[in-house]
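Human:
If only I could read C-alpha cells as easily as an amino acid sequence. I am handing you a single protein, as its sequence and its fold in C-alpha cell form. I hope you can help me see how the letters and the C-alpha cells relate. Thank you; the sequence and its C-alpha cells follow:
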Amino acid sequence: MLGSGKRSHRSWTDIALNLWGVLVLLFLFAPIIVIVVYSFNTGRLLVSFDSFGFDAFATILHKPAVQNAVRVSLITALISAIIATTLGTLAGIAMARYPGKWVWWFLGLLLLVSVTPEIVDAVALLPWFVWLGQDLGVTMFNDGIVRLSIGSSLFATAVVSYIVRARLVGQDANLEEASSDLYAKPVTTFRRVTLALALPAVLAGFLLAFTLSLDNTIVAAFVQVSGTTPWPVYVLSAVRSGLRPEVAAVSTVMLVLTLIALAVVAVVLKRAGDSATDIARTMAGG
C-alpha cells in the first residue's frame, strides 16, 4: 500500500499553534514557578537569591506576625466558605427546582455581584460595618473576623450558587417527586434526595469558596481592624520594607493547598459519575 510506511507530517500551522500554546502556558505560570523557587531562598530579601534551603519555611513556625496573619486568613476563609456554601446551596437549589422569570433576574443580580469591582465592594462595606457596629450598636460587626468573613463571602456565595445550580439543572427531579409520592416529609426529601444529588457540587463550592476567600486583598484591606490582619494585607504592608523569603514560603503553601482543594473537587465529581466535560461545566458554574 502506498504510504503505509510513511509517517504523516504535521503542517507548519499545527506546529506553530502548539508552540504558541506552550509559550502562553509559560507566560501564565512563569511567575508562579519563580515564587515557588524563591521560597527556598535563604537570603534576607526575596529578590536576592543566596542559596537553597528551608529557612523561609522554618520562619513561619517562629515568627508570631506571620503566624497570626496566616491564622486569621485560614479562620476567615473557613467561616466565609461556610456562609457562602449555606447561602449559595439554598440559592442554587431554588433556581434549579423552581424555574421561572425570577431566576433570570436573580442570576442577573448574582452576575452583578461577580463583576462588580472589589474596590466598590470594599468602599461600600466599610461604612456599612461602621454604621451597624457603632451607630446601631451591633458589636459583632466591630469584630475583624466577622467583617472579613462577611466581606469575603459575597463573591464566593455567587460562585457556589452557579455551581449548585449547574449540578442540579442536569439532574432529573423525578426522584424528589417519587419521594413526595411516598409520603416523605419535605425536610426528609430535601436532606436525603435533593441535598444528596447536589452534594458533589456543594463540596466543590465549599472548597472553591475557601480558596477564593484566601485571596481577597482589597476588601480585607478596607474592613480589617487592628489585631486581625489577614495574610494578603500583611504581604501588602511588607512590600514597603522589602519582601522576605517567608512571604514566598507561605504563598507556596497556600498554592499547594489550593491545588489540593481543586484536586479533591475533581475527584469528588469524578466519583459522582461526572465526565471531564461535566466536571469542567460544574466547576465553571455553567
Remarks:
- The chain has a mean pLDDT of 81.
- The two ends are 48 Å apart (CA to CA).
- The longest helix spans residues 64-97.
- Residues 108 and 213 are 22 Å apart (CA to CA).
